[in-house]
Amino acid sequence: MNVLNIHTREINKPKGEILNLFATLSQKDDKMWPWEKWPPMKFKNGLTINSEGGHGPIRYIVVDYNPEEFVEFEFQKPNGFNGRHKFEIVTLSESKTEIKHTIKMKTKGLGTLAWVFAIRWLHDALLEDAFDKIENQLCNIQKKSEWNPWVKSLRRLLAA
Questions:
Q1: What is the dihedral of CA 154, 155, 158, 160, to 10 degrees?
Q2: Has residue 116 got a pLDDT over 80?
């Protein structure tokens, strides 16, 4: 199955302010990844090319990284996930920046079933939580995306 999953959010702050948070991705003081609610993102050699890691059961390797623009990962697990995902920080204007996360992959076998019935839903909720975390640190708001009943059920099931 071909998968193209894109999340974007515009934040009314200059790119430099968001890059300060982006620089902490996968570090102990991660200000971008919602480790408070989800398994933390970790890499054996930090955020460097060819470093292996991931979060929870999702494993990947860093294949490209420009600290001023993006980081791209290639899936290693789960089996049946063949492709990449990428975080991008894009200037829209002097005072507006877009955060973008894209998954582009082909799934097969059990990977397709896992994506359709569980991982996609959990992934979408995780990304919205990440974007909330970023925006809440930079703006005078406190966003909290609501998890749908399926995500709540999956989390209860996986916690058991």
A1: -120
A2: yes
25: left (phi over 0), alpha (psi -120 to 50) or beta: beta
Q: Is 122 helix (H, G, I), strand (E, B) or coil?
A: helix
Summarize pLDDT for 62-74 with one digit per residue, the tens. 999 999 999 999 9
For the chain, which domains are there? 2-159 (3.30.530.20)
Task: Count the Cβ atoms, other than its own, within 10 Å of residue 53.
Answer: 20
| Residue for token pair 């991931």 | 54
Chain-wide mean pLDDT for the chain? 96
Give which of 148, 143, 102, 144 is closest to 122, Cα–Cα: 148
The values of phi and psi at residue 57, to 5°, are: -85, -5
Q: Shortest CA distance to 58 belongs to which of 83, 36, 37?
A: 83
Q: Measured between alpha carbons, how far is 6 from 24 in angstroms, rounded to an integer?
A: 22
Percent of the chain with pLDDT over 90: 97
How many residues make up the chain in this entry?
160
Mean pLDDT of 6-18: 97
